[in-house]
Amino acid sequence: QVVLVESGGGLVQPGGSLRLSCAASGFSMDNYVIGWFRQAPGKQREGVSCISGRWGQTYYRDSVKGRFNITRDNAKNAVFLEMNSLKPEDTAVYYCATDRGLYGGRCPLLAGTLRSRDFGSWGQGTQVTVSS
User: Fold this and answer.
1) How does strand 113-114 pair with strand 18-25?
2) C-alpha angle with apex 17: 15 to 23, nearest 5 degrees?
3) On the CB side of 53, how many CA atoms lie within 13 Å of its CA?
4) How far apart are CA 128 and CA 107, in angstroms?
5) Binning pLDDT at 50, 70 and 90, where does residue 1 land?
6) pLDDT tens digits for 38-90?
7) Do 81 and 94 touch, CB atoms closer than 8 A?
8) Are the C-beta atoms of residues 21 and 7 closer than 8 Å to each other?
9) CB 14 within 8 A of CB 88
């Protein structure tokens, strides 16, 4: 059974930083595509970042480019999302996700955005609030 657990969220002032973690149990994250999504109240879920299984590919939505960085640590069986220069509009619940079908593949993109329907296994989410 694929289990993903996010952590690292919290309340931070504008301009601050947070590091989100996505830890896996029940499987090895090596070579799996891992995506980060977020959903703010009253808004649709949106893809934030993604790291491919084995190609070294990364994806960032335009609004977070240059501020967010996604990395993986296979020894810890985890993927991290480093978020810097946070803005109030980054406030959301952040989810990590993967899918058995994304083993060894690339980040699934459609019209330049991360396609959430390709991800079948999701964590419970971690709240990020950016406010002064």
Assistant:
1) unpaired
2) 155
3) 15
4) 24
5) confident
6) 999 999 999 999 999 887 799 999 999 999 999 999 999 999 999 999 999 99
7) yes
8) yes
9) yes
